Amino acid sequence: MAYSAEVASATKAGLYGDSFFSMSFPFFSPKDLQGAVVTVMGLGRHKKGSGVGAVKWLMRHGAQVVITDLKSEDELKESVAEVMLWYDEYRRAYPDREISKPIFTLGEHKEDDFQNAQLVVQNPGVPRESKFVQLARRQGITVESDVSLFLRFCPFPVYAITGTRGKSTTTAWLGEMLKTLHPKTVIAGNILHSPLEDLDWLLEESAPVPIVLELSSWLLESLENVEKPAEIAILTNVYKDHLDRYESFTHYKQAKELIFHHQTKKQVAILNADQEITKEIATRLSARTLWFSLSHLQGKEGAWVEEEKIVCELQGERKEICAVSELLLLGEHNVANALAAILGAMVAGVSLESIRQTLKTFTGLPGRQQKVFEKDGVVYVNDTSATSPEGVIAALKRFDDHPIILLAGGNTKGFTYEEMGEWIQKTCKQVILFDGTGTQMIEDAMKGVVPVKRVSSMKEAVMFASESAQSGDIVLLSPGGSSFALFKNEFDRGDQFNIAVAGLSFLSTSKKTAVIQ
């Protein structure tokens, strides 16, 4: 099932045709967007995220874009500036095309924007239950996301990854492997890059290009009316998460399962054999199913760990990939991510040598157990993407051979923190907590065993940690909750940590109480 063969046949034979356009979707070519009124709900603060990416693409194709967000103009000033910069650029670049100036409705939503549009593009951060989204649907207006728009127009099959944990790392790892097949491989989706940014040049390609998409549960829900299946769909794992957004864990699990929607026996599903919940999901799948596991798989196709070596067996052919110790990324969770990426790459036709080389050189993504600084024998680790208790536990397990000073706290997403509290008691010498709806729950779970310091800023947290740390300690930012009032989002939280830690380099080793500017 080599990539070039499967994609070429799908593209040349028109495998997808028009079947993946829902009946209500009014556009059959990007050119049809010229003059169309499109409401983008949720601009967001990421200049490379879904909201800004959708606005840029829609503007470029001549749509009259109405941008609405509950955040104020001041809160969104960087994103607004980015949009206007590209508006001016497109007017210069396309003198033969009418480029409409975007209209902003910030600090509120107005019903008119959802009743008088031909299309609504919903940022994945916006709940599908929003009364404005429902209003648009009642008016017969199609509601899309940047990813669903991309899939409606993109002619090439995609490889999709989801999961509660590990999806970003697996996406990036698989993307790096696929780049050995095609240097233009697209890596996009929830990984802070809208695939719409690549759609126009992809439509000009004469040969197929690999496309790897990280899909959150919210993005998967936006694809319910898009019938184009993922050629390879990977589910890394399913844990309780986002229960502030979903009615129950069952509903969250059902959203994750949408990654296999419309797959047939012609496609491939890759799942985690170490979870009962993924085994249960597999009973409903039509695709060819492959498995990955941290222990030996019996009677299943897939990849696993055997005697500290990664082994893969597909269609009866067994191959030894490499020793676990050769991976640059440490921790059992990263071994699982590697196994999933290996399977995806092998099915896609990546050579064994290219897979081995990527496994040995891939250094991971920022904000995921990333060692950012070392001073006086103290290592500072940015794990801002650990927004669930399971994520924090994974980090504590990885660094449990060192005393840990943990920076945590934030808004709960329906979590319980008992197990995380037990691991904190085992591994941490000090915990520094930011305010949030889950912070008291974290403190209660520690049962008074570990000293706690409450702080009101990242600078204060890092300074207190540096004063408390001794040579051999780990200062670990691993929040266990979502971002909150102190930070714009988890990425801003990680950036503030990096900046504050970088400031430590200006302190003398004998005067660690100096103020970080």
Q: What is the mean pLDDT?
A: 89
The main sheet comes to: 9 strands, mixed
Across the major sheet, the strand order is 7-8-6-9-10-11-12-13-14
In the CATH hierarchy, what is the architecture of the largest domain at level 2? 3-Layer(aba) Sandwich
**The CATH C-level class name of the largest domain:** Alpha Beta
Question: What proportion of the residues is helical, as a percent range?
Answer: 25-40%
Oligomeric state, counting identical vs distinct chains: single chain
Number of H- or I-type helical stretches: 18
**Beta strands, count:** 20
CATH topology of the largest domain: UDP-N-acetylmuramoyl-L-alanine:D-glutamate ligase
Percent of residues in beta strands = 15-25%
The CATH superfamily of the largest domain is identified as Mur-like, catalytic domain
Number of spatially distinct domains: 3
**CA-atom Rg in angstroms:** 24 Å
* Unreliable sequence segments: 1-23, 508-517
**General shape:** globular
N-end to C-end Cα span: 56 Å
Structural class: alpha/beta
Structure, described:
The chain has 517 residues and is of the alpha/beta class. It has 3 domains: 35-144, 3-Layer(aba) Sandwich (Rossmann fold); 148-361, Mur-like, catalytic domain (UDP-N-acetylmuramoyl-L-alanine:D-glutamate ligase), CATH 3.40.1190; 370-506, Alpha-Beta Complex (Protein-Tyrosine Phosphatase, Chain A). The protein has helices spanning 3-12, 50-60, 77-93, 112-115, 131-138, 146-153, 167-179, 196-203, 217-221, 249-257, 276-282, 332-348, 352-361, 389-398, 418-427, 439-445, 458-468, 490-503, and strands at residues 37-41, 64-69, 103-106, 119-122, 142-144, 159-162, 186-189, 211-214, 232-235, 268-272, 288-293, 302-306, 309-314, 317-323, 370-375, 378-382, 404-408, 428-433, 452-454, 474-477. The protein has a 9-stranded mixed beta sheet with strand order 7-8-6-9-10-11-12-13-14, sandwiched between helices. Strands 15-16-20-17-18-19 form a 6-stranded mixed beta sheet, sandwiched between helices. A 5-stranded parallel beta sheet has the order 3-2-1-4-5. Strand 7, helix 8 and strand 8 (211-214) form a beta-alpha-beta unit. Helix 14 (389-398) runs parallel beside helix 15 (418-427). Mean pLDDT is 89; it is low at 1-23 and 508-517.
